[in-house]
Known about the structure:
The structure is a single chain. α3 (51-65) runs antiparallel to α4 (73-88). The two termini are 15 Å apart. The protein has helices spanning 14-25, 30-47, 51-65, 73-88, 92-110, 115-130, 134-152, 157-172, 176-194, 199-214, 218-236, 241-256, 260-277, 283-298, 302-320, 325-340, 344-362, 369-382, 386-402. The model is unreliable at 9-13, 16-28 and 406-413 (pLDDT under 50). Helices cover 77% and strands 0% of the residues. It has 413 residues and is an all-alpha fold. The chain folds into three domains: 1-147, Serine Threonine Protein Phosphatase 5, Tetratricopeptide repeat; 153-236, Tetratricopeptide repeat domain (Serine Threonine Protein Phosphatase 5, Tetratricopeptide repeat, Alpha Horseshoe), CATH 1.25.40.10; 241-318, Serine Threonine Protein Phosphatase 5, Tetratricopeptide repeat (Alpha Horseshoe), CATH 1.25.40. The longest helix has 19 residues, at 92-110.
Amino acid sequence: MPQRMTNSGRRWAIFLSAATLASRLGMASAGALEWDDAMNAAERAWNESRYSEAEEFLRTAVEEAKKFAPGDRRLDVSFSSLATVLYSQGKYDEAERSYLQAVAILEKTLGLGHLRVAESLTGLATVYQMHGKYKEAESFFERSLAIREKVLGPEHPDVATSFSNLGTLYNSEGKSARAEVYYRRALAVLEKVYGPDHIAVASTLNNLGILYSSQGDLVEAERLLKRSLRIREAAHGPVHGDVAGSLDNLAALYNSQGKPVDAERLLKRALVIQEAVRGPGHPDVAVTLGHLAASYEAQGRPAEAAPLIQRSLVIWEKALGPEDRRVAETLSSLARNCAAEGRYAEAEPLLKRSLAILEKTRGPKAPELVMELERYASLLRKMSRNAAATEIEARAEAIRAEHPTASLPRRAK
């Protein structure tokens, strides 16, 4: 199950730009006042985690800004702000469109190397990363970093944000050594500028904790994740989306340590926060549902896990489409749950669909297929279809032989 990594730099600093812009333009018309009111209302809604209301206000702001003269800065501010809110709700396709519109306006009005362009490029890259379009994401993250380093210098917090975002991208691609380098660079800058306990440090600590967990350094992972959680609770209070994210990540670590009861306690708290703050259909909720299901299964409670996995699947399909890798992962989890209860006939089509998604998105010989193939072969043997299982196992071994340096688990069950 995935853990909830944090892309930095998507907080609501944009509203500060909007307020400054409004003052500088000396708004007097009725349309200008309506735009200002909509932006202020959206900011209040965002700060109170009322994201759907913030979206409505920002759509009003966009329509008002379209009435201004060509090149007016309020239009790009409106699109960028709307894209941030859309992303926060898991509406990634709509967020992409808004970011693209903002980038086009900014490049035309301010030039390719402006800091506002870097901000929108970062948002666009984050959307592409969520969709698994890693090459496109890397290109935009690197371009954003280049702009920031040139304009701000190498030890500015925004440069650290770019380092951290690249670290998250590389970790998503399995490039853990490269990810660690960028996270450490980000952490060094942020701690130097803000000190070790500032909220700006928490996201990088969180991401480093997840990285070390994936590398098996569980002691250091737990230390970093707890530190991130303490900082976030001190800064935001106990009911905040980022606090829920830290709880979720720490719980996932406890699951991996064989402490499912401890994990369950944290995950239930995280789920309540996320459903209240993000809404019941947000992808962050899907991640927590998956982790909670895993804790139930580890406690021998597969019947309680099944509806959580099914609900997670619905969320991922709606947010990312039916052929995303997270859909494949969730289908595999559901198949494993069915098999654990002896419902092999139900498990098979789920595994076959998971394999089909991976083959289409990663290729027929991708190393990611090995675990699914071996899981399918194991299921076939339980169904006394040994000849078919042998063929599947041979295919898995052939892929292993083509990727001798890849880190592949042995004999998934």
